[in-house]
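Appendix B. Chain record.
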Amino acid sequence: MKALLIAIFIGLALVAMLFPAFSLRRLRSGRRSRQADNVAAFRSRKAELDTDLTAGRIDTATFEQLETDAATELLRDAQAEEGTAQPGGRWMAAVAILVVPLVAAGLYLASGGLPPMSHAEQMSGLVEQLESRVSASPDDLDARRMLARVYMGTERYQPAAKLYREINEQTDGSNVEALVAEGEALGMARGQDWLGRPAALFDTALQIDPNNTRGLWYGSLAAAQDGKQDIALLRLQRLDRQELDEPLAGAVRRAVIALGGVPADASETAPPAAAPADTPAEAGTQLSLTVQLAPKFEDAVPDRFTLFVFAKQVAGPPMPLAAKRLDSPRFPLAVTLSSQDAMMQGLSLDSADRWSISARISRAGEARASSGDLQGQIELTRDDTGQTHMIVIDERVP
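Structure tokens predicted for this chain:
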């Protein structure tokens, strides 16, 4: 259909260009025909005058006067012909003035119009419109909510947190989604620090709706960061019982395992005795480790225990970027941590360039360190990836 429209408008453009040429050609042809008739009439009239002069029917003065009259009439006819040609030229110019914009507009519409604005231009225009709307109508919650979402989508977390706080103040803290959204925005603005007001907002939201998906997720992060592993595990297990889409479902299951819990579907999530030696390329950043038990602790390890291996960002949030939970493995043990072992969507080994790697033997099977647990720790940088590094469990948790 678009091709047909373009062909039609191109045809109109050709007609618009050729029409004046054909018209002028016809006009000139008509002009030449009339001029020839006028000249022929003048010549015929002059011949008659010559005959009359020779025959003596008129004198020389009369001949000259009549000849002058005939020439004047010929000139007048020529001038009149030029005058009648001008309106036709103006008419064709008017047609051209109308047709050319019509053809241009048709080609513009048929070809889809101007090139679309870039995403950045669209977002900038949307932000300006919403900001103007919020300024003009401070009580317009929908505009404030939409602007906050745009801010979140463009990673402007601080102004988003401010808008959500204003919404919560206007609604007296009764809107669960706004409570969780403010906590999320504020925590992201602080570099994923969920303690303080974010944690309080998640707690309030879960008191209103104990099964709120986002509230349980961020509430578990806040509880884990605060050292309340039991609360974090309880919230994750409640979340694990919901129907979740990937990748959140996988992240929740891995977090439950990392905290020493049992996933809702243990048959699909039970970890292998050892991590696979080769991890798919889709895993992103990979840290290859060999976990070794110091000789002095060979007799201190019980028959049944849980080994936790996890990586945190150096000088970053306390939530591990990747974690594995292994039941009673044998040492030395090959372990590969990758972005597939992330505990939180958007927060993985790819998020950092320096990692603190810990391996801890837990007698109680809890991810939280307890007195008497055995552990070891090393630090790696991105330059260390691609090699296998030894981590030795050589100290006891006081």
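Further analysis of this model is presented in Appendix C.
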